[in-house]
């Protein structure tokens, strides 16, 4: 029953995000070709400058409808199932879209995300260490 509950919650949030984009005629496919102001911000998408550190958001990307904004890395982080593992993955805000990767389009803040969406801070720290060591 626990696994079914996780899936039900995931699909509800995924559908909520999808319906918001559909209702407001917001582009959701990659590569993104858009005017940020006209196609996103005027329709309620949250600007990068308005994001709160360590806040979880409902939004749109290919893999998960929930992501946490991390000020240090200037990325959202979300949990992605890959085979039998859960992987914490960074994803940029739509403002940082370089037309080659998926982005996260934040729709609204989430007060209390379910446990399955909570990002492990240790994984973010490890990611930062790899970036620092790579750039030495």
> How many strand units?
5
Strand content: 15-25%
Radius of gyration, in angstroms, nearest whole number: 15 Å
Name the structural class.
alpha+beta
Mean pLDDT: 83
Structural domain count: 1
Low-confidence stretches: none
Q: What would you call the shape?
A: globular
**Neighbour order of strands in the largest sheet:** 4-3-2-1-5
Percent helix, as a range, is 25-40%
Q: Span from first to last CA?
A: 48 Å
- The helix tally amounts to 3
- Biggest sheet descriptor: 5 strands, antiparallel
> Helix and strand string, N-terminal first?
HHEEEEEH
Give a written overview of the molecule:
The structure is a single chain. The chain has 136 residues and is an alpha+beta fold. The chain is 30% helix and 23% strand. Strands 4-3-2-1-5 form a five-stranded antiparallel sheet. A hairpin with a 4-residue loop joins β2 and β3. The chain is globular, with a radius of gyration of 15 Å. The termini are far apart. The model has no long low-confidence stretch (mean pLDDT 83).
Secondary-structure map with pairings?
Layout: H1 2-23, H2 36-40, E1 56-60, E2 66-70, E3 75-82, E4 85-91, E5 105-110, H3 121-134
Antiparallel strand pairs: 1-2, 1-5, 2-3, 3-4
Question: Top keywords for this entry?
Answer:
5-stranded antiparallel beta sheet, 3 helices, 136 residues, alpha+beta
Quick synopsis:
By secondary structure, this protein is α+β, with helices and mostly antiparallel strands.
């Amino acid at each position: 029953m626990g696994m079914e509950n996780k899936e039900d919650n995931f699909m509800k949030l995924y559908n909520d995000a999808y319906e918001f984009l559909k209702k407001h005629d917001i582009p959701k496919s990659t590569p993104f070709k858009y005017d940020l102001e006209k196609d996103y911000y005027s329709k309620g998408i949250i600007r990068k400058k308005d994001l709160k550190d360590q806040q979880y958001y409902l939004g749109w990307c290919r893999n998960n409808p929930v992501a946490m904004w991390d000020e240090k890395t200037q990325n959202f982080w979300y949990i992605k199932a890959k085979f039998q593992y859960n992987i914490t993955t960074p994803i940029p805000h739509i403002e940082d879209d370089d037309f080659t990767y998926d982005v996260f389009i934040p729709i609204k803040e989430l007060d209390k995300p379910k446990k399955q969406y909570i990002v492990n801070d240790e994984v973010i720290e490890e990611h930062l260490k790899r970036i620092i060591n790579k750039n030495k």
